[in-house]
Design a protein that fits this description.
Elements lengths: L5 E4 L7 H11 L6 E5 L1 H11 L5 E3 L15 E5 L16 H18 L3 E4 L4 H5 L6 H8 L6 E5 L4 E4 L6 H4 L5 H19 L5 E4 L13 H13 L5 E5 L7 H4 L4 E4 L2 H12 L4 E5 L4 E5 L16 H11 L2
Parallel strand pairs: 1-2, 1-5, 2-4, 3-4, 5-12, 7-10, 8-9, 8-10
Antiparallel strand pairs: 6-11, 11-12
Length: 320
Amino acid sequence: MNFNPILIVSGEPNSVFLELFFKVFNKNKIKNPIILISSKKLLNLQMKKLGFNNKIRLLEKSKLKYYKLDNKYINLIDVEYNPKKAFEKISDKSNEFINDSFKLAFQIIKENNIDKFINGPISKKYFLKNNFLGITEYISKKFNTKNTCMLIFNKRLSVCPITTHLPLKLVSKNITRKIITRKVFLINSFYEKKFKYKPRIAILGLNPHCESIHTFNEDEKIISPSIKYLKKKYNVFGPFSADTIFLRNNRKNFDVIVGMYHDQVLTPIKTLYEYDAINITLGLPFTRISPDHGPNETMLGKNQSNPLSLLKAIKFLDKS
C-alpha cells in the first residue's frame, strides 16, 4: 500500500458511530488512507437519513496491497448486512455482522501487518453476552495476548483501571501485585516509546482514604508493596485517596492516574475532559483505539452527537 492505512470497524450498526465517522471524514484532512469495514447498504441508508453524500469505493480484501488509496472516497470493505431502515433497536440480530466485521479486520491486520486499528462501539449486553468483560478482552483473546491494559488517554492526563468492566463486589478479589506491576510496565513502555519520557504515575488505593475497617486491608497488603517494588524502576507514587487526587493541584503532578476499578478513574476523567479522550489498548501487537463512548442509542438519527473522541483517535494514529 502507498500509505500505512488506518483500519476501522464500524461496530454496532445501530449506533452513532457512522454519524461521527461522516462528520470527521468530511471536515478533516487525514493523511493516512482509511479503510472502513462495514455494510454498504447501512452506509447508504444512514447517509440518506443524516444528509451526507460521500462516494464509496469498494475494495477487495485479497487485493488490498495493490490499491493506491486516498481519502477522496470512503474506502469500504463491504460486510453483508440487511438493515430495514437506517437505525433500528440494538439487539443480538446484528451479532453476526459485528463478528464477521471483526474477523475480517483481524485477518487483514495479520496478513498486511497493519498497525493502526479503530473500532466503533458495540453492545456488551448483546454482542459479548458475558463471555468477555469488554471489547479490550475480546480483542486480546483473538490475538492470544494475556497482558493488556486499558488506557484512557488525554495528552494532559490519562487514566488506567486495574480492573475493567467488573462488578464492584468482584474487584477486590481481582487486584494482585502481579496485575498492578504488569499494567504499570505497559504504561511506562507506551510513554517511553511514543513520547520519549517516563511518565509520572499515581496509583490509587482501593478503600476510602486508603483505609479499611476489615482485618485485611488491600491498600496495605497489596497496593503499597506493589508501589514500593515499582518505585525501583518507574516514576510511581502512592497510594493516594481517590476522592482528592483529581483536584487541580494534585492531578497536575502526574501524567497517568491508575485506579483499582473502572468508575474510580473513568468518571473523573470524563467529567474533566468529556469527549477529549480516547481508549487505547496497550500490549497488543498493533495500536488499537476506540472512541471513549458507547453506542448511545438515545441519540440515533438525531445528527447531534459529538465526533471529538473519534477525531482524536484518528489524529493520534494519523501522526504516526
